[in-house]
């Protein structure tokens, strides 16, 4: 897919941010020589990028992918992380103080990944090749997941002696249909392929190659970007609310949401375009 650079996002070091079509941003993790493994600076930038995208009136849909042919991301750069923990060099500190510092560090990391979910715009995550550890945290925070058929996934954390703590254990059980499968892959750290990911609903599309998956994502994003941003962003908000609340709570929230959203002219413009068989154009949000 053809890419045009987005001038407002050129200062970021670890990501390439372009636009394949109007109102669509493509965020590409850009550390391919290290399999797009994450340094601390990368997750801090990720939060800044998605906070900026969330309120950018020139962006209505976001595609998230990884540069290179080998990996979406190999997860956390363990070597770099082992050299710079928040309790490094504090051997004399008591366990309570160490724990508080480490908890702050973990919650800040969680917040950076959660920025993808909090983004007001729909996020389409396109995976290929290696997609392990942090790849699952990151993709679970997206709205739509698709992949190339060569993708190999793993919730890898138990293999490095820890429970996944950046979002997988909170979001993956709500993203797929089988609690048994979730516990199986999380407790064993075994790899699973694109076919299996599709069968349990972790991804909604599998394509022959990374290029084909990105093309499909770009086409889907263009369709979404052509819709009313009031309607699209409201739908994302209400679906995420429904996931975490009762039916009655969500119905009440939806009524309150649409009480102001329906005052926008978007619904009238959409209905009129259907009558006149013309393409509607919606104001920026």
From TrEMBL:
Keywords: Acetylation, Fatty acid metabolism, Isomerase, Lipid metabolism, Peroxisome. It holds the Pfam family ECH_1. It comes from the Eukaryota. Pathway: Lipid metabolism; fatty acid beta-oxidation. One of its GO terms (cellular component) is mitochondrion. It is found in: Peroxisome. SUPFAM superfamilies: ClpP/crotonase (SSF52096). It comes from Schizothecium vesticola. Belongs to the enoyl-CoA hydratase/isomerase family. This is ClpP/crotonase-like domain-containing protein. GO terms for molecular function: delta(3,5)-delta(2,4)-dienoyl-CoA isomerase activity. GO terms for biological process: fatty acid metabolic process. InterPro entries: ClpP/crotonase-like_dom_sf, Ech1-like, Enoyl-CoA_hydra/iso, Enoyl-CoA_hydra_C.
